[in-house]
Amino acid sequence: MADKIRVTVWNEFRHEKKNAAVQKVYPDGMHMVIKKALDAAGGLEVRTATLDEPEHGLPKEVLEKTDVLTWWGHVAHGDVKDEVVERIHRRVLEGMGLICLHSAHYSKIFRRVMGTNCSLKWREAAEKERLWNIEPGHPITQGIGEYFELPHVEMYGERFDIPTPDKLIFISWFEGGEVFRSGCCWERGHGRIFYFRPGHETFPIFYDVNVQKVLVNACRWAKPRIIKADSCPNPKPLEPIRSAKA
Amino acid sequence: MADKIRVTVWNEFRHEKKNAAVQKVYPDGMHMVIKKALDAAGGLEVRTATLDEPEHGLPKEVLEKTDVLTWWGHVAHGDVKDEVVERIHRRVLEGMGLICLHSAHYSKIFRRVMGTNCSLKWREAAEKERLWNIEPGHPITQGIGEYFELPHVEMYGERFDIPTPDKLIFISWFEGGEVFRSGCCWERGHGRIFYFRPGHETFPIFYDVNVQKVLVNACRWAKPRIIKADSCPNPKPLEPIRSAKA
Amino acid sequence: MADKIRVTVWNEFRHEKKNAAVQKVYPDGMHMVIKKALDAAGGLEVRTATLDEPEHGLPKEVLEKTDVLTWWGHVAHGDVKDEVVERIHRRVLEGMGLICLHSAHYSKIFRRVMGTNCSLKWREAAEKERLWNIEPGHPITQGIGEYFELPHVEMYGERFDIPTPDKLIFISWFEGGEVFRSGCCWERGHGRIFYFRPGHETFPIFYDVNVQKVLVNACRWAKPRIIKADSCPNPKPLEPIRSAKA
Amino acid sequence: MADKIRVTVWNEFRHEKKNAAVQKVYPDGMHMVIKKALDAAGGLEVRTATLDEPEHGLPKEVLEKTDVLTWWGHVAHGDVKDEVVERIHRRVLEGMGLICLHSAHYSKIFRRVMGTNCSLKWREAAEKERLWNIEPGHPITQGIGEYFELPHVEMYGERFDIPTPDKLIFISWFEGGEVFRSGCCWERGHGRIFYFRPGHETFPIFYDVNVQKVLVNACRWAKPRIIKADSCPNPKPLEPIRSAKA
What's the pTM? Predict the structure, then answer.
């Protein structure tokens, strides 16, 4: 591991090219806004990658130099090649951190590491969301108060079809009457995974100071503690085996 | 759900056809020994299915009439068609129980519901195994004492690359010096999953009375509590949304 | 275990004697309303016990004939004798079910089995609560839809200082802007514990049909799977010890 | 939090005063050997405290300057005053780390934070123990290989009556045939708790290089991430409450 945490910010980057409303909010793409926020935090070395680059910008060499991968996708989950998903999955199990944002709940990589449908309720009504911080001692909530609010969001509601999180750190209240497990931590293989609900293509969610704080904290939390290739060894016994005589 | 729990015992059924040593232990296939044990227990309606049947014996109609699927595979994991794995996976998330036995740790379906490598250490030295029952109150350990022993087994050792089990119920001690999390419970979607370590093609493990008890108990534990198709609904708000005016 | 599940409904029963507003809602005490709901469900044999009876109505003989104990207390947690709490605690670890309701979050017995403060936010503003069912397959949510509402409640808000539940089954949305983990399951020793948020002395919560369904389901879920006294045995080795010669 | 992690090593310190065999192994007390190992690691500021000091060496001022408390007791658990246990408990829930060693499984403080009996099997036969590292990526196992061995130990066997650990990091194999969950992590309130099995008054366990590594790592892992006093606030609503009119 390098001294700086090497983060690769991945973005589908399709909405921003085709939709004027999205372009207005994210003229250079959502990834550039996220990158800027991470750069400003210090201690992170940030690159970006997008769907339409060769190998979606994630060849083996890039993943090997990535400590934490953040993922945003929405309309083109199906265009992500299975071999790239396979490569990312292997890397997560080896120890790389993975942070899935908002509509990435339905990305191939998130569904693969979870093993579940990852479905949920949704509604676009520009309503208010309040995220309650239920683990004030967790590294990802450092600097966040008891709650923070986002004035206009797309709603995501329960039941969110995920494995029970190792640690649930945010629960959202929505103006329209729903709740959601909005910040969820898991460990899989040697890697850490964080799902964070906020983020949308037309609401300026990634400019929000609290969302940015959480993203920075999550990159620090998810950095590899070990990198270890998978194996299925066939060792000699450590003790004498007497039963086998029988 | 029918009154009886409808169990489908799936077996790769390749070893038994080609290998005389295996044939001697399981002349009609391992699945027939498991079926017989489940039939004898009462309350279970048991069918079998094997790899070389059309659709591996698991067409849609069979899965729809299956409450609990038990799985044993070893040399031919790669021959199981992805579309059948996909179908089983969906059914588990809808509520069907899944019981994976021994070398099924490396089956496509187990790895898919776990989201991890499911790798482990292994050794064939005919050593002794002692399975400690660490949850005597769990339905799967009913009738099992503090521990039970198997005189000659293939060893599986840690680290077993699985998500932390919701409940760990057996830990194995091996004569050669290893330990293993041998009975592990998870819930995924609406379905229950049990991994049980014992089982091998040349040792007569599935004739063991304690192993049979655990299998029967596990089928009862894993039966569906609900069957519910996945969805991703777009509901109207339950409360008036005033923020959106802004 | 008897054929019927033997439930003891415990109530502090102080508010009802002193406060006219409470008496109007629960003229015979909250426990009698809960008892009536459980009686109506069938399969449960229900008795009651209250604080001001000798030994709080919970002598050894009663606990030994109790499969599931439900607990409601509020103003007199401190009057519950430590020796009775100790006796209940031991019985839960042996396998008895425990269901703690609403303000019982601060009862001695709940804090003792949790090992945490069990503190929370609260507000009496007669606001609306909507409980989201996030585990539709769980036995405790059988017959409950996606959510149910209570028109006027005392609010409880996060952070609720509890150990991470083994299974979180209800999350509440409150009109005033908070959220709460309202249905939480744990296992401790051989016993099962359920915390359920609804319940209040002046709002007629325990008359609500959904609350009553959850209580009935919870009694069925929490019934003992085993009853086993604690021990700390000193067994002989099961294998020869050769190292000790050194 | 200070720059250095402030560790208080607590020892019952009774065996060492009365028993010649123990005195030979730990002439200055077990706590001095542990202190020395922690001092040598760097980054830790270590003090000690023992049972027979006033307030067991743990007055309020000491706890307030303690980031991590390690605990060893055996014959005199009952002599630890309840008010001191209460004080420690409160401090753990506020964020202080707690590391319980070997026979501290039966200490008042460990049983109180767990809420269970914490009973187990035990045997003094000087047998061999092999601790398997099942979480090589965990901070507490840094520098520890796949396993490490202790040549002569007191055996602890399952069932260990504890709440399911948040993370299980060591499983022990014993020569006499048992297994044990030997390294267990939990979070309670804002504090982190680690139980570590090795340690005995007549075997020189705390001189072992791997045991010392684990202790150092555990102190680093358990240090407070936040210190926060408990409260049960009564906040104003964040949203207008319209239902209450009814």
Answer: 0.97
